[in-house]
Amino acid sequence: MDILMSYTGLVASMWIVMGIYIASLFYPNFSHSKQFCSELGATGSPTQRLSPVINNYPLGLLFVLFGYYIATSESSPAETIAVGAMIIVHGVCTWICGFFPMDADPYTDKPSTSCNIHSWSGVVMLVSFIVAPAIIVFSSTYPGVLRVLSAACLAGCLFFSYTLSLAFKAKTNPGLHQRLSYGFQILWLFIYSVYTLM
């Protein structure tokens, strides 16, 4: 069982890319550059029911399993336990985002309760995968290469989170910047998953 769980991080890293792509095929004229990933599961969208089933729910499980594996591995230092906890938090919030869809219009002035829950859960997801690589960056427990790569991923995520806020205000192409921001977080997960298997 531990062997299978050790690969869940790698599987999640690839699953999310394929899941979003597959779901978008069932959403006519979906724009990856202009629309958020969550719009695939938004209230009233053509893929409202499909997207959480192939994305949020299985991904949440993979994150939780990998985080649990990391946090409970034998002789795990406190830093690794904290990283595992952040991955578990990310997984739980992935479930919440799937269960509570965002509104169809991301620019609505009066978001629904479901949309507010979705948005705040998304914020926690973002923070959890900022804290996790930051722990590695500032801990001498980990090898230098992993710390440098984690720092690069963290910097990429923060930079594109900033450009995302600008694109959202300008109503241009926030989808592209969201994918780049989250893409660096998923790249970090992939790198960290490979490290744990070595």
In short:
The chain is mainly α and 198 residues long.
Describe the structure in your own words.
This protein is an all-alpha fold. The chain is built from seven helices and no strands. It starts with a helix and ends with a helix.
**Molecular shape:** globular
* Low-confidence spans: none
Q: CA-to-CA gap between the ends?
A: 18 Å
Work out the strand percent: under 5%
Structural class: mainly alpha
Question: What is the helix content?
Answer: over 70%
Secondary-structure map with pairings?
Blueprint lengths: L1 H5 L1 H17 L25 H23 L5 H22 L13 H25 L6 H27 L3 H24 L1
Helix pairs in contact: 2-3, 2-7, 3-4, 4-5, 5-6, 6-7
Task: Sum up the structure in keywords.
198 residues; mainly alpha; 7 helices; globular
